[in-house]
Design goal:
Elements (H helix, E strand, L loop, with lengths): L27 H11 L6 E3 L9 E6 L2 E14 L3 E7 L2 E10 L2 E7 L5 E7 H14 L10 H12 L7
Length: 164
């Protein structure tokens, strides 16, 4: 296992839709790396494309619960969308109010082939939506309302790390 480097906004892999995992046998190392990478303090989720792998897998670490989903799908979003402060490891140092549903449910697979469902509210719901967006080639910046998006991109262009 190893902590993997996070790809930053501007890297083309972050805008590329990931491919489904076809053979779970080959996903073991990826899942281990994602779990170790997300276990660092201050991290709620990491998608495979954030570490340079174009497969549909993410790991989460919310309220002491560490887990992962292979080939995840959001199956239910409920409640009224709310503007929630959101950040991203691939967009370090920037936080903006993104519209998110307060409740989310996702299904996916474990390494043993079992299908599981994860349902959450608050930060877990936000993380499920955020990580599934990554796997679809989107960042939270794509979800921002027009005025907030304009502010975010102005701030983004001034970041020393920006690959733009």
């Amino acid at each position: 296992m190893s902590v993997r480097e996070i790809r930053l906004f501007g890297d083309p892999i972050l805008k590329t839709k990931t491919k489904p995992v076809r053979n779970l046998e080959y996903a073991h190392q990826l899942v281990e790396d994602l779990l170790e990478t997300v276990a660092l303090p201050g991290r709620a989720g990491v998608a495979a494309n954030q570490i340079g792998v174009g497969l549909s897998v993410f790991a989460y670490n919310v309220d002491g619960e560490l887990g992962y989903l292979i080939n995840p799908e959001i199956t239910l979003l409920s409640g009224e969308k709310q503007l929630i402060e959101e950040g991203c490891l691939s967009v370090p140092g920037l936080w903006h109010r993104a519209p998110r549903f307060p409740e989310a449910t996702a299904t996916g697979y474990q390494l043993d082939g079992s299908k599981i469902e994860i349902a959450g509210t608050g930060l877990l719901a936000q993380a499920l939506q955020h990580e599934c967006d990554h796997l679809a080639g989107k960042t939270y910046l794509d979800r921002l309302e027009p005025t907030e998006r304009k502010i975010a991109f102005k701030e983004l262009r001034s970041q020393k790390w920006f690959l733009g």
